Amino acid sequence: MAHAILILAFVLTCASAWTSAQGGRITATTPKRGGNAAAAKVANPVPATVASIAAGRKTYMLLCSRCHGPAGKGDGGGAGAGGQPADFTDEVWEFGSSDGEIFAAIAEGTSADMESYAERIAAPEIWNLVNYLRSLKPRPRRL
Ligand code: HEC
């Protein structure tokens, strides 16, 4: 019986460590490698204006550049848990390339290095970040 309780406690500890890396809860929009169709359906409510991109850049420089690098090339060197920060100037979006999926990666987090920012950055500001990250690499116009 004591063993069963110990094992249960261990399993719960592991589960909570994992969910906290994911922002505390698993939802339909929790980022997945390869993309998340539910997150992709979430439309960006903030138009990618010059003002939005400038606001996103300011937040990026404060909170993100230490890992992702000043120009977004993934060369900031700050990822203490050993992850490779994403390069935003290439074509690769590991967790999906839609605005909704990029939002989910920032809001909910993907790893020990790439933490959840939902409690630190308000949603409209996360959308500004999405607009800024997209501006780093010119993309084909979406129709
Ligand atoms: C402590 C280092 C660190 C900080 C700070 C950090 N990131 Fe990350 N980020 C990473 C790592 C490492 C990955 C790759 C994660 C993985 O493969 O699970 C990543 C991945 C991402 C992705 C997914 C990219 C893709 O290819 O799908 C996005 C988007 C992102 N970060 C945005 C941000 C934003 C915006 C901020 C600031 C609010 C930020 N990150 C702060 C380390 C960091």
Task: Write a structural description.
With 143 residues, the chain is an all-alpha fold. The chain has a single domain (2-135), classed as Cytochrome Bc1 Complex, Chain D, domain 2 (Orthogonal Bundle). The protein is built from six helices and no strands. The protein has helices at 2-21, 37-40, 50-63, 65-68, 99-108, 123-135. The mean pLDDT is 88. The site of heme C has 24 residues, from helix 4 and helix 5.
Secondary structure layout plus pairing:
Elements: H1 2-21, H2 37-40, H3 50-63, H4 65-68, H5 99-108, H6 123-135
Bound molecules: heme C.
Heme C (HEC) binds at residues 63-64, 66-68, 78-79, 83-86, 92-95, 102, 105-106, 110-111, 113-114, 117, 129.
CATH topology: Cytochrome Bc1 Complex, Chain D, domain 2
CATH class call: Mainly Alpha
Q: What is the count of DSSP helices, taking H or I runs of 4+ residues? A: 6
Distance between the termini: 62 Å
Query: Residue ranges: pLDDT <50 for 5 or more in a row?
Result: none
- How confident is the prediction overall: mean pLDDT? 88
What is the succession of H and E elements?
HHHHHH
- The second-level CATH architecture is Orthogonal Bundle
Could you name the CATH homologous superfamily?
Answer: Cytochrome c-like domain
Radius of gyration: 17 Å
State the helical fraction. Answer: 40-55%
Query: Which sheet architecture does the biggest sheet show?
Result: none
Shape: globular
Strand content: under 5%
Number of individual domains:
1
SS-based structural class? mainly alpha
Which ligands are bound? heme C
- Count the beta strands: 0
